[in-house]
Protein 1
Amino acid sequence: MKTWEQLQSEALERHKDNIGLGMSDSKTKGAKVLGGLINKWLKKGSTCLDVGCGLLPKPYYMEVGCNVVWYGIDPFNMEVKRDFFFKKAMAEDIPYPDEVFDGVCFATTLNHVKYLDKSISEVNRVLQKGGYLFVWTSVGDEKLIQAWKDKGGLWNYLHAWGFSEKDILSLFIFEKIDIIDVRPNEKIYIFKK
Ligand SMILES: C[S@@+](CC[C@H](N)C(=O)[O-])C[C@H]1O[C@@H](n2cnc3c(N)ncnc32)[C@H](O)[C@@H]1O
């Protein structure tokens, strides 16, 4: 059986023409709003884990959300200098103890994970009681999403999952994480544990 590092190396080779695609720089619509919301909901000095933080030294939402102390994980198999605490890891197996973070965010990443249920339970495990979860993701039309679910397989060649708004709002119900705010234009969903 291949390790995830081997699978990542193979994926890196397959997608080498797309490297850097979809990373949140200052021109990315939504990144500024996400950073502002993180500053709004998390107290100054809180810790926030960015699950799937990408390849930038500091994504733009971290620059804007500068009141918090940032941690990031990403499985991407490339050496990059980062201006925050970083570990190479996946959402499905977060290398931190239980209930340590005041906030967790998925910034255009939740639809990339391989095992959604495991990723959700891992996020719940590392998030403190009373902590905030920020999900910024693309959201599709319910009928299209249902047709994809009936067919099975990956959503598309870059994303494992497709979500309707209804899916997003119900993803964390079983973890007792409640929706508290939605930014419909940017597709940012804020939850509280
Ligand atoms: C569209 S990029 C977003 C990167 C960053 N959040 C940003 O906005 O600049 C999606 C990221 O998800 C990461 N990713 C893919 N599968 C993952 C997983 N299972 N767990 C955590 N991150 C994952 C990819 O390596 C990639 O860096």
Protein 2
Amino acid sequence: MRIMESRAQMRKEKTMDRIGGATGLVRRLMLGSIVLLASISLLAGCGRQQAESPESSSSADVAESSSRAGSSCVIVDDAFSNLQMTDPTIPVYDKYTLSERRAKGLTTTMPDLTPYKEGKVVYLTFDDGPDEKNTPAILDILKENGVQATFYVTGQHAELHPDVLQRIYAEHHAIGNHSYDHDYKKLYVSPETFLSEMERTDEIIHGILGVRPLILRAPGGVIGHFTKAYDPALKASGYVEHDWNVSSADAAPNHPVAQDFIDNIDSQTDKPVAAHAAIILMHCSEGHEETVKALPEIIRILKAKGYTFGVITPMTPQPW
Ligand SMILES: [Zn+2]
């Protein structure tokens, strides 16, 4: 009797084990699905046109997950407190426009950050795009070589080629603001006129991607354009400006050719100022076919010199 009882007990336990095993399996499958869904939503947030973010989700969590994924981007949190990063290859964006931040009572001021100083990093930057021909050709070359770059776009060109802007974003390059239409006369009247052009461009980029850049480049660079009043005004609006320390001179008036850009970059990256953070100026807009032609050799030389390829973020060191 006791034997039968214990056999019955054993059968019961085995059945319970099977149920327990099945439950465990279901649980594991469910967990797997949650992880998969989280990964998909993560890419949707950083790599594709962004749907309205759920108010309940923490942007800090998104940022943390993005970093762990080793790709996509970081979305700055409401307080701008997650910008001190350790990886120079992850682009950073804000999910709010400046007017949305003001309306919500959130900070718009960029905090003081310690610039990234590890290793030997090169930042390929392409200004004045996107266009429909050279920018896609550059994206193809970057993809073939497995490297990232930064595109400082104008609002005017983003409006004309939103599909190319989306591709830049989807392929995890960084996007920076380069004014609406590159008109020095309007831009450099005062910090206020400069910032209103930048904010206009942000609204356009945000309308296409659902995020706005925190980085910008002053058309023509800051020298001769910015007065002392510009830096604090930019900081108060949450922007960091980066000029360059290596110029391909691909926009020089004497119509230089691909080999000139290669030589310029090769010689300038040997200078001490560019040894650890080389920020290279190039252009990806209409008429820059020679830049496209030069790019594969430029990448080959930089790889041979031991550079890794970063994207500009608020914590990228200043070029000088
Ligand atoms: Zn420009």
